[in-house]
Write a structure and sequence with these properties.
heterodimer, A: mainly alpha, 9 helices, EC 7.-.-.- (chain B), electron transport (chain B), Ion-translocating oxidoreductase complex subunit D (chain B), transmembrane helix (chain B), cell membrane (chain B)
């Protein structure tokens, strides 16, 4: 696998086909669990693990799975992996497991997992498939983390609340001090929709801005038309995924 | 300009909005005199915030600023927000609510004329969901001096147990929940006047007068206020006749909370409401029904705001199904989707 291929996969996963902002897949956990940054990132990391392993397993088995029944087989593989993750969370991060609750088993039904298995792993070699799973998952994680941070900051005035469930020595950071009244609606479901809508708008605005800048650049004008490959378009200014 | 069929007289947005503001003055006067003078501070604060937010959003969207800022539409939104809120909410709550109304509910959807939801009601619902405690601290009518109110608005210590009273709707709900024998027993309390909340009856009367001015100048048509009042009277009247010990009378419902303000100034929002004559009737009646249901059985004391938002969602459907027949065309087959 060439470095170019790695770069393409990374760019696709982290930005261009970002699961949360461009494909809008897996909205259920994005909206439901992003009430705090720790919850969101934890669920995101669990999803990365499942995506990487599912892509690896499906890619390795892709020549043995009958085409006609591939979807049930994919789901079985994903479900088995999710069960492993679910039990591991229960064993090692029990408090967090109680908070995330049903959303860990629900990773099975997260469309982004099945979508990457079907669209990528079933057609590519194990190494690049695993890498694709990780990058797609990371793309989801930074969106989840940012969304969780925005909602937590506005809604409760804290960041990293619940971090003690993972690292017992740390505690939440009260950004606005103790008497911040809290903007409760940011934590309630409407806040999730508003915040995600604003993030998607920002994502589109940045893309439009970048595209316009690429077009204006005179030396590259001959080659850099609107049909540029993702990698080429990424070169002028790799957008910082930190948003 | 506003309502179809379009009138021939050129009515500018500025003139329409100016008349709406003028029509609010009687209600505001009664409010300031009978209930709480703090409302004047909130109105000023809300207006300033609204104009600033409007100018900011127009600048960000690269639209002409001067025309849109002087058309008074932002100020109407600001006044409606302030009038829906308790008059002693802290200053930042009013500002936050107006920012939500202007930036989120109005400009993120495309500005004046594009918003599917009533901006003032979006602000009210966001704030009552986000700050239920602050949003339910109403001063008992005429009980607080202006200085005290100003202090509360500007962020004085909120030691409110001795100062605030329940609104009429709130008192009725709490009274009935805590096992009062009947509506009559609850209505003996000090929060109540002749037929609504004490002092508030005059405010409702002021809104009614302003609303009639709007009707007379044809800023609004009769459909929405009539349907709203009729539907609210009908449903509350039916249940009141059925069991007067558990359900309040239609007069109480009409004079309490924001019913009159809603009937003439909120339900009639020309942008987010239905536009066909039959559609307007359905739209306003639906709001009245939802408002009564929430008032009688829901968790929030006042349900008009939620009713408005829920019916806003239905507007495209209502308008589509109530399109009047165009002269010269035959009526479409009933019931089919177009």
């Amino acid at each position: 696998m060439s470095p170019q291929q790695f770069r393409d996969i990374s760019y696709n996963g982290l930005w261009k086909q970002n699961a949360g902002l461009a494909q809008l897949l897996g909205l259920c956990p994005i909206l439901a669990i992003s009430t705090s940054m720790v919850n969101a990132v934890s669920l995101g990391l669990a999803t990365i693990l499942v995506m990487a392993l599912a892509n690896l397993a499906v890619s390795a088995l892709r020549n043995f799975i009958p085409y006609e029944i591939r979807i049930p087989v994919f789901v079985l593989i994903i479900a088995a992996l999710v069960t492993v993750v679910d039990l591991s969370f229960n064993a090692y991060f029990h408090d967090l497991y109680l908070v995330l609750g049903i959303f860990i088993p629900l990773i099975v039904t997260n469309c982004i997992v099945l979508a990457r298995v079907e669209a990528y792993a079933a057609k590519n070699d194990p190494l690049s498939s695993t890498f694709d799973g990780v990058m797609m998952g990371l793309g989801l994680v930074w969106v989840l983390g940012l969304l969780g941070a925005i909602r937590e900051l506005l809604g409760a005035g804290t960041l990293f609340s619940g971090i003690e469930m993972i690292f017992p020595s740390l505690s939440a950071w009260n950004v606005f001090g103790e008497d911040y009244p809290g903007f409760l609606i940011a934590i309630l479901p409407p806040g999730a929709f508003f915040a995600l809508g604003c993030l998607i708008a920002a994502f589109n605005a940045i893309n439009t801005h970048l595209a316009a800048r690429t077009h204006k650049r005179p030396p590259a004008a001959a080659t850099t038309t609107s049909q540029t490959t993702p990698a080429e378009r990424a070169e002028p200014a790799e957008p910082a995924p930190a948003g | 300009m506003i309502h179809s069929p379009y009138i021939r007289k050129p009515a500018s947005v500025q003139r329409v909005m100016g008349l709406v503001l003028l029509a609010l003055v009687p209600g505001i006067t009664a409010y300031a005199l009978k209930v709480s003078a703090g409302i004047l501070v909130n109105l000023a604060l809300a207006s300033l915030t609204a104009v600033a937010a409007e100018a900011l959003m127009l600048a960000l969207r690269k639209r002409p600023i001067a025309i849109a800022v002087t058309d008074l539409s932002a100020i109407v939104t600001a006044w409606l927000v302030a009038l829906c809120f308790p008059p002693i909410v802290p200053w930042w709550l009013t500002m936050l609510a107006v920012l939500v109304a202007i930036i989120v509910a109005k400009h993120l959807y495309g500005g004046l004329g594009q918003n599917p939801f009533n901006p003032a009601m979006v602000a009210y619902c966001s704030m009552i969901v986000a700050y239920p405690a602050l949003m339910s601290q109403w001063p008992a009518a005429g009980s607080l001096s202006f200085d005290t109110q100003l202090g509360l608005i500007l962020g004085g210590a909120r030691d409110l147990d001795g100062m605030t009273g329940a609104t009429a709707l709130d008192a009725l709900r709490t009274g009935l929940r805590s096992g009062a024998s009947s509506v009559e027993a609850v209505l003996q309390g000090s929060a109540f006047g002749f037929f609504g909340g004490r002092g508030w009856e005059w405010v409702s009367l002021g809104y009614l007068g302003g609303g009639l001015l709007l009707l007379a100048t044809r800023i609004i048509t009769w459909h929405m206020p009539a349907a709203f009042i009729a539907a609210l009277s009908l449903i509350s009247g039916t249940f009141w006749l059925f069991d007067p010990t558990r359900f309040a009378s239609p007069l109480f419902h009409l004079a309490s909370g924001g019913a009159m303000l809603a009937a003439f100034f909120i339900v009639t929002d020309p942008v987010s409401g239905a536009t066909t004559p039959r559609g307007k009737l359905i739209f306003a009646a639906g709001i009245a029904l939802i408002a009564w249901l929430i008032r009688s059985f829901g968790a929030y004391p006042e349900g008009i705001a939620f009713g408005v938002l829920l019916m806003n969602i239905c507007v495209p459907l209502i308008d589509k199904k109530t399109q009047p027949r165009v002269f010269g065309h035959r009526r479409r087959d009933e019931g089919g989707w177009r």
